[in-house]
Write a structure and sequence with these properties.
The protein has 217 residues and is α+β, with helices and mostly antiparallel strands. It folds into two domains: 86 residues, Uridine Diphospho-n-acetylenolpyruvylglucosamine Reductase, domain 2; 119 residues, 2-Layer Sandwich (Uridine Diphospho-n-acetylenolpyruvylglucosamine Reductase, domain 3), CATH 3.30.465.10. Helix content is 26%, strand content 22%. It contains eight helices and eleven strands. A five-stranded antiparallel β-sheet has the order 5-6-10-8-9. Strand 8 and strand 9 form a beta hairpin. The chain is globular, with a radius of gyration of 18 Å. The N and C termini lie far apart (64 Å).
Length: 217
């Protein structure tokens, strides 16, 4: 009840103290999720900023939504009221390309097409081909386990992911898996999160097995 009565300006000021004033704003018409308008929108620049925003929202008992490219917003169940919409678009870098090991670590807000364009410099690619790959983000693809025809040869995202960094709703940062294909360290949370539709945690980066690009004919 207290948070429902708190003005949007007050909430913006509070979360801005955690993520910076340039990373938070009031929602607009473009931020609607399944017909629901969030109260606030935050786009953290770092994993730590995202963790701070989630921790703050949980302490305030605010409802949280997460959006990448917005290509699969109609998937899953109906969305209820959203207080804080977290955008991952600023977490969009290719963290590390280990081309000798055929693996890469990428941030969740990067689009699949941008990552594959970078990997092409070493004639490799992340062998996933879901619809709208120019807008679909790595985090959204993993969260929905989305795939295309290449699944029959290379597998689905759940088969390709070998590790990830994640943030829990209370702001705790965790990691699972490793950076090499042969890895048996700890619980396989990366595969647990794949296909979970963001209900368990927010993925901030993920490490995948890659494939060589076929020679052009």
């Amino acid at each position: 009840v207290e948070d429902a009565a708190t003005s949007t300006d007050v909430l913006i000021a509070e979360v801005a103290s955690h993520v910076g004033a340039d990373a938070v704003r009031e929602s607009t018409a473009v931020d609607f999720v399944d017909g629901v308008r969030p109260r606030l929108v935050v786009e953290p620049r770092t994993q730590e900023g995202l963790a701070a925003a989630l921790g703050w929202a949980t302490s305030r008992t605010l409802t949280i939504g997460v959006r990448g490219g917005g290509t699969k917003l109609q998937w899953g169940g109906n969305v209820g009221p959203v207080d804080l919409l977290v955008l991952t678009g600023s977490l969009n870098s290719l963290v590390k390309h280990r081309y000798g090991d055929l693996t890469a670590t990428v941030e969740a807000g990067a689009t699949l097409s941008s990552i594959n364009a970078a990997l092409a410099n070493h004639d490799q690619w992340l062998p996933m081909d879901p619809p709208w790959s120019d807008r679909a983000t790595i985090g959204g693809i993993v969260a929905t386990n989305d795939s295309g025809p290449s699944r029959h040869r290379h597998g689905a995202p759940r088969d390709l992911i070998i590790g990830c960094n994640l943030v829990l709703s209370d702001g705790q940062i965790a990691k699972s898996g490793g950076i090499v294909v042969k890895n048996v360290a700890g619980y396989d949370l990366a595969r647990l999160l794949t296909g979970s539709f963001g209900c368990l945690a927010v993925i901030t980066s993920a490490t995948f097995k890659l494939a060589p690009r076929a020679p052009s004919s």
